């Protein structure tokens, strides 16, 4: 990732930043940053100005602020001007090791893990996925793709070749030029370079070495000149959100001049970097470099000055800036699919349109040619905030100040968000999921009521989003300072144009990768969802209020009484041993969120023949299956099976049965005939393979990183022994702390092991086609059911309630298959316990390292202390006594119990 530094500072921040990211330990770095700071103008800010700006006059207000400060963690930045502006905007600079600050600022990029860990009220100054446009080679690759689709729109990047892959294409291009007697110069740059390092120019493309990690560009040899010097622009852009995209353009920036008068490239001057490159970090070493005594002569000038200059030259400045803003928007449209995808992966569950935890100030380097056409040279995700000169300080402090104001961080965000989070988890625990099978059972009146309720919910969601958007927009308009919002644009023409490009970018960059997201974006940006923050919609708040009123009127007309059905999972109190889950109607027929994602296509099978007990398995043409010992289901006899059938049930019910097509084969190659002539030999073979699978599953041990089988067993024993202690912790870890993606990941550990076993036994790479695997999938989905309640129930008295997914199905399963399922449930339970132990070990380690720091008075854990801690939690010896082992694993708890 390029980190330009026009302040000319050593590029230490990249390694420092990644170090901080990796260890999560930011302590001690601030002192280092302080020493590295270089702010001759920062100190000019007088004390009085500083205090005046806080606007904190009233005593009460002061006290309140002291108690509840809006904090900023600046351990990751070395720029003093950032600190100053943060304080000026009323933030309280927190300790370097405070991970819960409202604002986190890093000079280098941040890991996706860090972004995932942020609380909703926090803000960090980088987006994930931005590398797709800030690395020179990635930018070239992505731009080439868009240019292919929209050559007239994406014509602002010089022709680029990525080495070594495009070397022969480049040579052919050069040959063509030669044949046509055309002359071009090429500029060769390191893919991840910055500050002009490693750049060279070539008149003859044949001489360009075929090196790795370089790009070659056609050299733009007709620059617009200022006083005879070549220059480029550093333009500052703020992105406040990617979901949806919001972009602001700062109305000032830097004009960076070369220090030798420009002459078109020629053998005699091709090596003169002071003539052809405009980097400040390079040109400041030239004896011709002029510090800004006044704005119209220095080697660094402001964009305001350039605008004036151009006006005097009778140039159309408005047209120029319209083109520049187009370049910026189109570039960020290329980045958006990558960023949004990465952001959604980091922040699962965050609603579109809610406040973004990420924001980013980008430095766009733009070149103007003789005709004032802007060309994109590169984008910097960590533009320098060095303030070597007065104009640097003026521009950058203003940029930071306006950015911080636009972020609109308030102390109340924390309270509000925590409350919202709590309400959301409560809602999740008590919510009443519904599935198609339940809806089928409803009367027409109930169905109508349900659909009206859903419509109302949708409209309320839309209304709240419209209001939120309006408030946000109003805030932005009043507080954008020197920023101007350039996306979403205000006019319909541009809105349509960019929407087109956006949808095209999504299908180009995410094709086959995130189909759901691509479809959602297409719908959203094509305005079918009528999301008002996206321009062009004519749906207003009043329209939605009308629609809501209509819904309520419908409700009254239909005289729909509130529903009294008690559905849904038992709440948290319903954890094992406290409230057993009752087998009431519908208890296990709720579709899991995972089901809704469509993984288990079998989820509807139990619609058919719900009243049939499992022992009826033989009736389904399965002579080889023995009935399962499972109990008959209660509460399902009230309706005759025929009444419970629904259109389409028959086809869905087939999903667990053996393949119907004569062309199908069993995975081991045995041809599968029509169900009626299903060969006994094939059935026996299938039964045999199922038995083998069971035996392998019984012997299977999941390998956990850094843990032997014995250690894993031992952990399980310890948790069982101390179940009372662990139970609430595991419940809160599984049901509350983990989100659906993480819960699925835990189950996927078992799933992938099971797949491997099936692949081996059935000698079949495509296990998805196996009936046994589809059965397992139903179990996995059941365990993830209702936000994990499915697996959690397995720890309690109702531990085998999941089995009813089969007892209600018309398609019965054999006892061997059921035993396989029982084994995988056990594996999932064990897996959760071990993963939980991993998580609590990590937590203990972190706590101990911080308490060690406090003891030693150090803010940073010494490597020795850390490694001893690691040893304490990781080493395990069978010769140790149990208490020794426990004290190693849980030192805190043992200490407190002993005392
Ligand atoms: P770096 O990240 O090392 O600064 P840039 O791509 O920004 O690399 O290039 C450095 C300088 O080289 C630019 O500021 C510009 O003056 C010059 N330059 C880069 N590419 C071109 C080009 N295609 N045509 C003309 N000048 C270029």
Automatic annotation (TrEMBL):
One of its GO terms (molecular function) is tubulin-glutamic acid ligase activity. Residues 408-462 form a coiled coil. The keyword Zinc-finger does not apply. GO terms for biological process: microtubule cytoskeleton organization. Belongs to the tubulin--tyrosine ligase family. The keyword ATP-binding applies. Keywords: ATP-binding, Coiled coil, Ligase, Microtubule, Nucleotide-binding. InterPro entries: TTL/TTLL_fam. Residues 1-31, 44-72, 555-669, 850-899 are annotated as: Disordered. GO terms for cellular component: ciliary basal body; microtubule. Pfam families: TTL. This is Tubulin polyglutamylase TTLL7 isoform X3. Residues 582-602 have a biased composition (Acidic residues). PROSITE patterns: TTL (PS51221). Residues 631-666, 850-861, 874-886 have a biased composition (Polar residues).
